[in-house]
Every structure is written in structure tokens, then in C-alpha cells.
Amino acid sequence: MPTMLDVAGLSHRYGGGDQTHTVVDDLAFTVEAGELACIVGPSGCGKSTLLRCVAGLIKPSAGEVRLHGDLIDGVPDDLAVVFQDYSRSLFPWLSVRANVEFPLRWRGLSKAERHRRADEALASVNLPDIGGKYPSQLSGGMQQRVSIARALASEPALLLMDEPFASVDAQTRFELEDLLRRVQRERGSTVLLVTHDIDESVYLSDRVLVLSKSPAKIVADLRVGLPAERDQITTRESAEFVSLRGEVARLLHGGQPATDAEKLAAADLAEADAAEQLADTRSKETL
């Protein structure tokens, strides 16, 4: 697959002189077209700063970011961002459809084409009939779906998501995770998502980039070998999921990447645990 995002030698510092604080330090990674990659790291390590550099919202102190080969110097037209706080990212005085259409106003599209794209995006997030409502009439989960629809309506080359499900309850979070995976596969979207949730990073992604404490460095780039079709129960109970979740947790706590032998042993242990839990469940059902 061609490279969609290329981050090379990226560093960013705040302040100057004796008050200089390095937030991210010499980061380098790529994201392929159609890939969903998650960035996970300790609180305050610089995840959001990295995302702002990728989005072109701030200019990095060193290094460069390229989107489909073009150097990012300012916010690209074919990039969209979904933020954590849905209540502040939607305009309360605009209808749902108008909110979704808002970024399209500067694309030179006709009113009919804007309507079509907005309705199509809302349908893709399972909200086909609420275009005339206002954000205040929707639940938190529905508002975040509208935020995702707004990002999708612009048909971005790269979709950035900054802890997009952190402000909703656990059940809604699971629903939104499954929604994102479905929409991403159907549209072939390229997604870079920042999260502090280890389970979410493993469940959602094709790859997990693990960052160190500030100043952030990449300590591991882990390929997720889970099936494309995932389920909130069976996937999270699988040996592969449990093993990889443990690997990410260990890295976040300062551990070193596991050797192949350690990964195999962890997978065997996780598989044995899963089998034991299944046997226990069946025993209880029999009783």
C-alpha cells in the first residue's frame, strides 16, 4: 500500500533558553493508505502536540510531516479532525445537517451536492433522519456521531481523531468503536487516532504506536494481528488480544519490547486462561 502519512525527525519544543521544554523528540513513523493506526502513551507525554503537528495546527521545531508526499505547512484541505469534546465541536445554533455541511462551504460545491454529502455521511454513522434536529436534541453519543459524519463528509485523505470516545459512557464507547471500524473499512479511510485507553488501541487498530514519557519517543510499533471482523466480547477474550494488551501495558510502564519467545509464552498463557474461563462458563451453564 502507498504511504499516506510520513513523519520524519519530528521534534517540538515550547519556551526558550533555560525554560525550553521538549515535548516530542525525533519521532519517525509512516501510516499506509487505508490503515487505522493508534497512538497510545502516558498522560502528558505529548500525544496531542504530535497530532497538532500532523494536522498543521502548529509548526514543529524540527523535522517534517508529509501527507501523500506533500509537505504539511498549514492545515491541508484534505485532512479532517474529530475532537474529544463533542459538545464544543458542534455549533448549537446550526441544525445537524448544517453542522455536517459547514466545512464544505469553502469547497466550491453546490448546495445540492453539500446536502447529498451531508445526508450520505449521516447515513453512514446510522443517523439518516436527524438532519433537521439541533445538537441539544441529541444524546452525547449521537453528537459524537455527527462530529464523525462532519469529518467524513469532506472525504479526507487522512482522518485524525484525538481521544474521540473519551467523553461518552462505556456502552456508547463500544458502539462508536464498532462504528468507526465499519465506516473505516467501507470507505477505505486512513485514520490516525490518539487514545490513552490500552484496550481501545488494540481493539481498533491495525497498528499500535507506543510512546514513552515526555519527551515522547516511539518505544514500539506493534502490528495487530486480529481478524478484520471484530466483536466486543469474543475479540477481547481472545488470546491474541490479551497478549497484545499486556505487551502495550508493559511498554507503557517502562518495560522493554518482548522477545519472540516471551510473546509466544504470553500467547499460550492467554489462550489457556481463555480456555479455562470458557470451561468455567459452560460448567456454570450446565449447573
UniProtKB/TrEMBL annotation:
Record-linked InterPro entries: AAA+_ATPase, ABC_transporter-like_ATP-bd, ABC_transporter-like_CS, ABC_transporter_ATP-bind, P-loop_NTPase
UniProt keyword NAD, yes or no: no
Gene Ontology molecular functions: ATP binding; ATP hydrolysis activity
Keyword set, alphabetical order: ATP-binding, Nucleotide-binding, Transport
Domain ABC transporter: 5-238
PANTHER family from the UniProt entry: ALIPHATIC SULFONATES IMPORT ATP-BINDING PROTEIN SSUB, TAURINE IMPORT ATP-BINDING PROTEIN-RELATED
Protein name: ABC transporter
Annotated organism of origin: Amycolatopsis albispora
